[in-house]
Specification:
By secondary structure, the chain is α/β, with parallel strands linked by helices. The protein has 21 helices and 14 strands. Helix content is about 50%, strand content about 15%. About 30% of the residues are buried.
């Protein structure tokens, strides 16, 4: 299928020339003579590539304004800016605002085609990368054998047979979206769309436009998330960030199973499954008056809680091996063998949770490939240096400032706590590993005040 190019120029001769060159070389072309026509064409359908004159009908540099508007709608669309009155600053400004190339009039057909072909190639590479990343991300599984994760897996399995609304809570990076995707993947809606709307990232002035779409006076219809997800699953991420006024309209949609587009007169029937997430304590948000209690009860039919990674450290070895394998598949590199007994994995607090662990494994995997001789544990130590782990108890320099008895106790407490985490709190296995009798280890833990591990 040929790529579609939008040509925007108020000079009809230039517009015809560019269109003819592109059509002769197998491209599909749409034309616009001014700013408003161009916006209309973009709203109807986003082009694969746009060729835009800097100066249109609105005034100086309104082509630049059109560039900015198009990039807001879809930042991946390559835009080639053209001008007959170009200067270096104009070109630099265009490129800073996201233009793919800047072409000065007059130009040869060869130069135009070279820019357009490279723009198409750039778009194809971005699309291919997104497809690959999306495919891999969708294949991720919920990994872990801790009691909390086993409970989550059980709930996912049970929810696959129902249409119940689900509310997933947990700290940022704990895997809330992944759990939502797994619920959708195992449900009867799995062949239908899975659409994510992030309440924290939406423009506060456009919540309702984004959710419900709009009908413009010129006949252009913009579809919102509720229509894009037809018969599928809508994930409302960080739902607590949505304003109270919009919450009321979402509640009405859940009750009536229908809505009207902004400025629209016809009711649209809704058939979607709603999954919501929040990294905030939604009960506290309700008590503070920031979230509607009636909407909370509508969304919170089946609650799922995901703990922080530091509260399920027994899953760290499984996660390390899993991500290492997945990342090697994505990047086409050899799998990096990580030392899952390395103490720093268990001392570190992981404020970014599973997402941070995954990013660390990716970084280490890439660095390891580029080094001829590499100490993996050294790379981990360097990556986590200056980050959030208990330097007061783990730092050699700090221990030196204590008397021998206190220093020994601090070392023993830190050492045994780490070993207990690695052995999932199992006293017998920990005692065997550290070379102590089970009863002696119990006494030592009591003496050091170690009552349990996260």
């Amino acid at each position: 299928m040929s790529k579609e190019i939008l040509v925007v120029d108020d000079n009809s001769d230039i517009r015809l020339l560019i269109s003819s060159i592109l059509k002769d070389n197998g491209f599909s072309v749409r034309e616009s003579a001014n700013f408003q026509q161009a916006l209309h064409e973009i709203n109807k359908k986003i082009p694969d590539v746009a060729v835009i004159d800097v100066k249109l009908d609105k005034g100086d540099n309104d082509g630049i304004e059109l560039l900015v508007n198009l990039k807001k709608i879809n930042e991946d669309v390559p835009v080639i800016m053209i001008s007959g009155h170009a200067n270096v600053q104009m070109a630099v400004d265009s490129l800073k605002l996201g233009a793919f190339e800047f072409l000065q009039k007059p130009f040869s057909s060869e130069r135009l085609l070279n820019f357009v072909n490279r723009a198409v190639e750039n778009l194809d590479l971005k699309t291919e990368k997104k497809v690959l990343e999306s495919k891999l991300f969708h294949s991720y599984e919920v990994i872990g054998e801790s009691q909390s994760i086993l409970k989550v897996k059980s709930l996912i399995s049970k929810l696959s047979e129902t249409e119940s609304r689900v509310f997933i809570s947990g700290p940022a990076g704990s895997g809330k979206e992944l759990v939502a995707r797994q619920i959708h993947k195992q449900s009867s809606r799995s062949s239908k769309p899975f659409v994510v709307v992030n309440g924290a990232l939406l423009d506060p002035e456009k919540y309702e436009l984004e959710l419900f779409g709009s009908e413009n006076s010129d006949g252009v219809t913009n579809y919102g998330f509720f229509e894009k997800v037809k018969d599928g699953t809508l994930l409302i991420d960080e739902v607590c960030e949505i304003p109270l006024e919009t919450q009321a309209k979402i509640l009405r949609v859940l009750i009536d199973q229908k809505f009207k587009r902004c400025n629209g007169s016809h009711e649209i029937n809704v058939n979607v499954r709603i999954i919501s997430t929040s990294s905030k304590n939604i009960r506290e948000e309700v008590d503070k008056g920031n979230f509607r209690e009636d909407l909370y009860h509508r969304l919170n039919v089946v609650p799922i809680f995901l703990p922080a990674l530091k509260e399920r450290t027994e899953d760290i070895p499984l996660l390390l091996n899993y991500f290492s394998k997945k990342i090697s598949e994505l990047n086409g590199i050899n799998e990096t063998k990580l030392d899952t007994d390395f103490d720093l994995f268990y001392k570190y607090e992981w404020p970014g949770n599973v997402r941070e662990l995954r990013n660390l494994v990716e970084r280490i995997s890439i660095l390891a490939v580029n080094e001829k001789q590499v100490d993996i544990n050294s790379l981990v130590r360097d990556a986590l240096s200056n980050k959030n782990f208990d330097s007061k108890s783990n730092s050699y320099e700090n221990v030196l400032s204590f008397p021998l008895k206190e220093a020994r106790e601090k070392f023993e407490k830190d050492y045994l706590t780490s070993q207990l985490k690695k052995h999932k709190g199992n006293i017998s296995k920990t005692a065997e590993f550290v070379g102590m009798e089970r009863s002696a280890l119990h006494r030592k833990l009591r003496t050091l005040g170690i009552k349990g591990v996260n």
